[in-house]
Amino acid sequence: MSVYSGPVFDMARQQFDGIADYLDIDIKYRDRLFLPKRAIAVTCPIHRDDGSVAVFQGYRVQHHLSCGPTKGGTRFAASVDMGEVAALAVWMSWKCALTGLPYGGGKGGIAVDTTTLSPRELEALSRRYMQEMIPFVGPDVDVMAPDVGTNEQVMAWFMDTYSVHHGHAVPQIVTGKPLAAGGTAGRREATGRGVVHLIGRAAQEISMPLAGATAIVQGFGNVGSVAALELARRGVRIVGVSDHSACYYDPAGLPVEALDAHVREHRCLAGFATQCSIDPRELLVQPCDILVPAALERVIDADTAARLQCRILAEGANGPTTPDADRVLRERGNDVFVIPDILCNSGGVVVSYFEWVQGIQKIFWEEDEVNKRLLVILDRAFDQVIARARRDKVGHRTAALAIGVDRVLQTKMARGLFP
User: Which of 151, 161, 238, 348 is least crowded, fewest Cβ atoms below 10 Å from its Cβ?
Assistant: First the structure.
């Protein structure tokens, strides 16, 4: 029996088993390498505004601490469960190893629909979750960050709750904070910026000019909206966007700045227009040069993969492409250039690392410095993935995962197993 279950965790296990076979990892090391070191489940009761008491289930998974503290986001979403959180922590481990960060993977969350919470209730739930996590987290143990359903404000509440408990400010306990609370310039935009930079690298690889290209962005949250805006600034025509509330497609192009302003005011795409609406299930397979799935896991299955009409698949979300879909993409040959998730969306954790370092040292960098350092790390990881893929004649996801998994394995082997 395992405490981890569900399609997302099964997908992560399937990916790992394939990479373990590819790397010829001894069977006796595989469970130690894959299964999380620690999993925490907590109960988070809060007072509702109407005087009632509501109870929410919270989770945190720390995959491994062999390279340093664990690092990862905290997700507030109705779908959150232990299996999903564990899979995301595992993927974060490979992501950190691929980019050379001194972290293991962590992830957490609460099973809650945040649209049902008032601002006061959201603060109460955020603070209660961190209060329950205090025995298990710390700047040298596990460092939290934003994810789906959380933002800079939630991170500030996390930091304040932890700091009050310790009697002094501890800004390095979370990243993705507001600048006023010790955050770093460029963190909010880092993931989307990284996605677009790597799209640019991919476009160079296939000799495709960005100016005049077309793109579809599924998921218009923090990652998707920044990616759409950055692509538009590079001359890319955004022909499709979606979020949980609405889906729009127009081959002539959509007004990205107006869409972003609408979302900032109304918190979702719904109500922006009616004439460009399309079935969300069909958005991913519309003709485009660049497809950016930036929502949730498992949105591209085998059937969708066979129907994709993009030239570059840039995975802004974690785990958007199932293993069955990967097989279909491999069978299609080189007609779709895949930028795998652990590379494509790694900009966020890279700049989170910068924020953590700055918090420890109490020395802060200008945004230009942050962005410059970010691009150096992304370029290095991209070059290593492409080189590995060409050398071994494997897909980009296999190459990226192999680099990450092998680095963690080497660290664990060097440190040994405590008697």
Answer: 151
